[in-house]
From TrEMBL:
The lineage of its organism: Archaea, Thermoproteota, Thermoprotei, Sulfolobales, Sulfolobaceae. This is Solute-binding protein family 5 domain-containing protein. The chain crosses the membrane at residues 630-648. Belongs to the bacterial solute-binding protein 5 family. Pfam families: SBP_bac_5. It comes from Stygiolobus caldivivus. Coiled coil: none annotated. GO terms for molecular function: peptide transmembrane transporter activity. Keywords: Membrane, Signal, Transmembrane, Transmembrane helix, Transport. Residues 85-490 form the Solute-binding protein family domain. One of its GO terms (biological process) is peptide transport.
């Protein structure tokens, strides 16, 4: 508390009006244990102990859901205005000076300067760590890759090949160039040195797309065990300090650049093996904050939450889709995929999921979303909505040579046509209900369908690489990209970069015979040569994917964040802050920004920081109030009140 400011305005009346309730609240706060943030996480494979834990997130270590907590972002995108919020970086610059005119034909250099921050073992975060993370991410992507030049411990130059950084999407360009896309700084050079050196040695071959070498390096990455102490792997606000089968304990990283701002000394992640136990903990008030990166709460629970929970609803231009496995020879046929689209009732599926789900009106159309409205042009208003039509589905299957016998569809070679759906996440009640509707609707139509849950990363990677053990996959679809439509998951990540869930080559043959490679077309949606090309590319992408259906988007999922107001002070639902849910893996940008910049605080911390103002351009430093300081303030306040009361009595 700023006592100088109080003394400036101090009168006996103000003391009576302001300090008495303050003293009361401070005394209550001093009695509360406010230094721990509690989060619930539903997982079918809980971590067991530190001794069996591998921090390599590519081998099952804490991954995307924990970005912003144990891994720091280099920069965040302010989704509300497409500005950049520096985090681990201090500043950046582009060269040559006329790069916006020559970017198509010349290399664009981005010079990044890091602020002083540290890994949790005390080692500094350096430019070599930026390089290590970038190189590891590169082998999971596709060439051409940038080149990296480390100038010193805190300066790195990233040189992007011609025609990759477009000035027509500056926000996207900046966040990819300086913010590592949506990935935090996940790899320490010292911890991954052997692998990084190997990538360096093979760099020329990697740039020439040596697929055999890329697969080899990916395999080595997935089995790598970092050699150093566990804290050496974490550079975020917290690090992994303890693991039991029931919880993961994260302690504050004292070397994090904004450590003085972090008001919670500890984060406890409850590891729930069932939805029911997680819901029970929420209803008992044992969880401070919850959102879908950790578990998705059903509508029934949201409606029955205790009154001290606040719910923030965030519309999202993404949700769940069914991805078709083209290794199934029948699903590789367009009429069969279209028939399935006509069978499934997206409205019924969304209703089964609950209030935060809504049906996708036009599969692979451009979402009717604030940031995308300029792309909803006449060219994409007449796409196929695939409204439920069982007669049309029957005609399509028959045209592909399928026959119906005793309520069961048979393939052209006479075998029963059945489908298996793989679910690569522990589904909450909403997703489980939707899966059951999908299964029942297809089965009722004569295509017996089942689904199974597989969350072991090594098994999933093998399945994705081979295309075995599944016919369809339920995966995320869509999402927010600055200024442009987000086609990444469907045309890149799940189409071969790095995992080809669809087992598809990305080529669409349109009804007029024209072929479109949507994997290559994607680059025009993120690095266009002009604004006109950007609109045209999004139009073409929507039409191609709507017609060809490599994936069938089913529902939008509005994001919901619940806040336990007994534990946490957070911005109001109307604040720009919650739009940050669109940036970062699984909405985890709000972790780092909220905890580092005073937007998420314990209820007992006295602060004058507003939680609904514009985002910080640089991270400010605020001193937290310890229990002893609180006690001291209470004593001072009580003394002042006592003096004031005596003065009033004398005046009588």
């Amino acid at each position: 508390m700023n006592t100088h400011k109080l003394s400036k305005y101090l009168t006996l009346g103000i003391v009576m009006v302001l300090l008495i309730p303050l003293a009361s609240s401070l005394m209550v706060s001093a009695q509360m244990n406010s230094s721990t943030l509690y989060i619930g996480w539903v997982t079918s494979h809980p971590y067991q102990s530190l001794s069996t834990y591998n921090p390599n997130l590519f081998d099952g270590g804490l991954g995307g859901s924990f970005y912003g907590l144990v891994y720091a972002y280099t920069a965040l995108l302010n989704v509300s205005n497409n500005g950049i919020i520096p985090c681990l970086i201090e500043n950046w610059s582009f060269s040559p000076s006329n790069w916006e005119q020559v970017w198509q034909n010349e290399t664009v250099n981005v010079t990044i300067t890091l602020r002083h921050s540290g890994w949790a073992n005390g080692a500094p975060v350096t430019a070599y760590d930026i390089e290590a993370t970038c190189l590891i991410l590169d082998i999971l992507g596709a060439p051409p890759y940038p080149n990296y030049t480390v100038v010193n411990n805190y300066t790195i130059i990233i040189s992007h090949p011609p025609d990759t950084l477009s000035p027509y999407l500056l926000a996207f360009t900046e966040i990819c160039a300086i913010g590592l896309g949506e990935v935090a700084l996940i790899s320490s050079y010292s911890q991954y040195k052997p692998l990084v050196q190997q990538i360096h040695a093979d760099w020329t071959q990697l740039q020439h797309d040596n697929t055999t070498l890329i697969k080899k390096l990916r395999s080595e990455l997935h089995s790598y065990l970092p050699p150093g102490p566990l804290p050496a792997n974490y550079n975020g606000p917290y690090y992994v300090a303890q693991i039991t089968p029931n919880e993961i304990v994260l302690d504050k990283n004292p070397y994090y650049f904004a450590a003085n701002n972090i008001k919670f000394n500890q984060v406890v992640i409850y590891q729930f093996s069932s939805i029911s136990s997680a819901e029970a903990a929420v209803l008992k008030g044992q969880v401070s904050i919850e959102y879908s990166a950790f578990m998705s709460l059903p509508s029934t629970l949201i409606s029955s939450l205790p009154s001290y929970y606040e719910v923030v609803n965030i519309p999202d231009p993404g949700g769940y889709a069914l991805y078709f496995n083209f290794k199934n020879p029948w699903l590789a046929q367009l009429p069969v995929r279209q028939a399935i689209a006509y069978v499934l009732n997206r409205t019924s599926i969304a209703l089964a999921g609950g209030s935060k789900y809504s049906p996708v009106p036009i599969p692979n159309g451009i979402p009717n979303f604030t940031y995308y409205k300029q792309y909803i042009t006449p060219a994409v208003q007449n796409l196929n909505p695939y409204s439920t039509n069982l007669q049309k589905a029957t005609q399509l299957l028959e045209s592909a040579g399928f026959t119906m016998k005793n309520g069961q569809w048979y393939t052209p070679n006479g075998t029963p046509f059945t489908l298996t759906i793989i679910v690569p996440t522990s589904p909450g009640p909403g997703l489980t209900n939707m899966l059951n509707v999908i299964k029942d609707e297809l089965t009722s139509f004569g295509i017996p369908t089942s689904y199974y849950i597989e969350t072991v990363s090594s098994v999933l990677i093998k399945d994705w690489q081979t295309g075995q053990n599944y016919d369809l996959a339920v995966q995320g679809w869509g999402g927010y990209y600055p200024v442009t439509v987000d086609w990444y998951l469907e045309t890149q990540y799940f189409a071969g970069i790095p995992y080809n869930v669809t087992q598809w080559d990305g080529v669409v043959t349109l009804p007029n015979g024209t072929q479109v490679n949507v994997i290559k077309l994607y680059s025009a949606t993120v690095a266009p040569n002009s604004s006109a090309e950007l609109t045209s590319a999004n139009d073409e992408m929507a039409y191609a994917l709507n017609y060809y259906l490599p994936a069938l988007p089913l529902v939008y999922e509005a994001q919901q964040v619940i806040i336990n107001t007994h534990d946490l002070v957070a911005p109001p639902p109307s604040s720009w802050f919650w739009q940050e849910y669109f940036y970062g893996i699984g909405g985890t940008a709000i972790n780092q920004l909220g905890l580092s910049s005073d937007y998420l605080q314990p209820v007992s911390i006295v602060t004058t920081t507003s939680t609904s103002t514009a985002p910080p351009v640089t991270t400010s430093t605020t001193t937290s109030v310890s229990p002893l300081e609180v006690a001291g303030i209470v004593v001072v306040v009580i003394v002042i009140i006592a003096v004031a009361l005596i003065a009033l009595r004398r005046r009588k």
